[in-house]
Design a protein that fits this description.
mainly alpha; globular; 65% helix; 6 helices
């Protein structure tokens, strides 16, 4: 839904007739829309940049659509790692946004990053286990 711009961000809700103050609850300095949340917001950009650095990809964070377009030319294993990482970060940003709005709670950058690294590592392990089992069964 994030890729298609279908999440219920403030700008989408305003277009549907809801009267809401349009402020990003992550950085509090910009209007909330998909382009800002994924990955123009300083908070989300820093989180994604930290994950990129952990993956040994040294470059600035790009927009979500630009990031997704880069995976086309990657080797298969790296593509899986990259897409799993993007999905985990997008989910984490959306969850943190909702936690701040609806529960008035917030996680620190370091807590979110630790949680993300663990989630990505588990998903990669599961993915490679599935590929290994599938290759063994194919023989």
């Amino acid at each position: 839904m994030a890729v298609q711009g279908q999440l219920a961000t403030v700008d989408n809700l305003q277009r549907r007739g809801f009267s809401l103050a349009n402020r990003c609850c992550l950085c509090e300095c910009h209007e909330e829309d998909h382009a800002h949340l994924f990955f123009s917001c300083p908070f989300s950009k820093h989180l994604w940049s930290s994950v990129l650095q952990w993956m040994h990809i040294i470059r600035p964070a790009l927009s979500l659509h630009q990031e997704l377009s880069l995976q086309v030319s990657m080797p298969t294993w790296r593509k899986h790692w990259y897409l799993i990482s993007i999905a985990a970060v997008v989910h984490s940003i959306w969850t943190e946004r909702n936690r701040r709005i609806f529960a008035q709670e917030r996680f620190s950058h370091s807590a979110l990053l630790s949680k993300l690294k663990f989630q990505i590592a588990v998903r990669m392990h599961m993915r490679h286990s599935e590929l290994f089992i599938a290759s063994v069964q194919a023989d």
